[in-house]
Amino acid sequence: MTQPDRSSFDALLGALAEVFAGEGRLGGDLAADALSAAGRTPYRRMTSRADPHAVLKSTCANRSAHPLAASVWSCRDYLDWTAWEGEGLATDVSANLYTTELVGPDGHCIADAVRVGLLVSNADTDYPVSRHSGEETYFVISGVAEWTVGGSPYTAQAPGCFIHHPAWMPHGRRTRAEPFLGAWRWSGDLDLSSFSVDD
Ligand SMILES: [Fe+2]
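Above: inputs. Below: predicted complex with fe (ii) ion.
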């Protein structure tokens, strides 16, 4: 079967590969390798269970956004989203968080060593302190969000920033007036069911 034209999707994979290759960690290198290889891997649709179109449009149009925002918006028709429903996360928080896995065991393109995806958060959303088995890095694409890592005070992180969470490190994020768009990557133990919210 002929694959549809996926040039805009592949452009996003390539741009993300460049970003994570510049992270300076082994996990970033693994993500970059997987993103590059995904351009030669079949694309598959996933079940779309959430529709962040309005907030995605708003955050991609943010004048302070990283150039990756334009790549995300260009390939929006290729992205299937779901609410992030981690164990212990309140339903009213989940309803404000949209995620898609681009590359990984459950992604648009299959890979087994990493997960790489996008996350959109509505404004005024407090994603509580939580932890998980995967070693994780976020890259801020649009919107200034406040982060705590390992018990640190909440600190504003702007587009272009990396935020690293070692495996099992507690971390939380809250948005204020702006919605948020970020790219995330996991390496190591990729078990999503390891996620838990701290008491
Ligand atoms: Fe996380």
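The domain at 7-197 is CATH 2.60.120.10 (Jelly Rolls).
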